[in-house]
Specification:
The chain is mostly beta strands. It contains three helices and 26 strands. The strands form seven sheets. It has a five-stranded mixed β-sheet, covered by helices on one side. A four-stranded mixed β-sheet has the order 1-7-6-3, with no helix packed on it. The protein has a four-stranded antiparallel β-sheet with strand order 9-11-14-13, with no helix packed on it.
Amino acid sequence: MTPGDKAVDVAPGAPITIAAVGGKLTQVVLKNDAGEPVKGRLSPDATSWIAAEPLGFGRTYTATAAGQGTDGKPATLTSSFTTATARFKADLSMNPLDGQTVGVGQPLAFYFDVDIADKAAVERAIQISTTPAVQGAFYWFDDSEVHWRPKEYWPAGTKITIRATIYGKHFGDGVFGNNDRVANITVGRAITAIVDGASHQMEVAIDGKVARNIPISTGKPGHETPVGTYVVMSEHTDYTMDSSTYGVPADSPLGYRTEVDVASRMSNSGIFYHSAPWSVGDQGHRNVSHGCINMSTENAAWLQEISQKGDIIVVRNTGGPTLEPWDGLGDWQIPWTEWQKGNR
């Protein structure tokens, strides 16, 4: 029997198994300290039994198993154990969510509400399966946030299933997973864009074929748009662009508070592509923005209509700094050789 008799601090999410050696099981009963039975499954050949529902925290369980040897003689076993009491039950949130369709650059992001000591235990608890199969790995951005992404962009049409079976799993220092999470996600068409700050053009491709060249304006001197591979984070209409969200008061000489018809977020630091009818005369000719990618309302609406969060936008030749991997979903800024080490 696993766990053994008189075991203590058993993780409620650990497998509870009883096996017969040289015979078969005839009956297994597992009850908690209130006398309530725990559901279980007997193997087709009656040689093993496993608990089929999670156990509670801080409870005592008693198992009684009966079996029969190959010689026909009966055998019984009784065992009891106590489950652990959690110092903290960790909740998990995810991005993307169940049922969403995402772009080919979308990482799978997992956020805990407490720091995790045993990161390998978390990685074992989060199971990711895909059709078609892809090579991928986890990478920790800090002690409570871990992402999983494939080595290359997702193939269009990939089906992703996430099973975060964290309940009752011990993640170190008395922290246990609280609620399991499940998500089924679909990768949509491959929408990729290349922004060139020198030519002031954005080239948009759909499934590898150029669909449109869009005149744009990137960040002006002193506000150069960071270069790198961005992942579209969210899409908005009738959005307020507000410099105070990144520390510049709207009423200061360099501040602004402007309503735009179309805006898609590319970073936490406030980089968007958005409609900018006031700079149409500059688009395709010079860089005049505060760091965002300006385009006409018609082009911004078209791009947002064909795309979804998780699409890739590569920014080049702006004279700006390099996009930081932690700024939004800058996962693709980390080379695969470094990513697969995990940063645990």
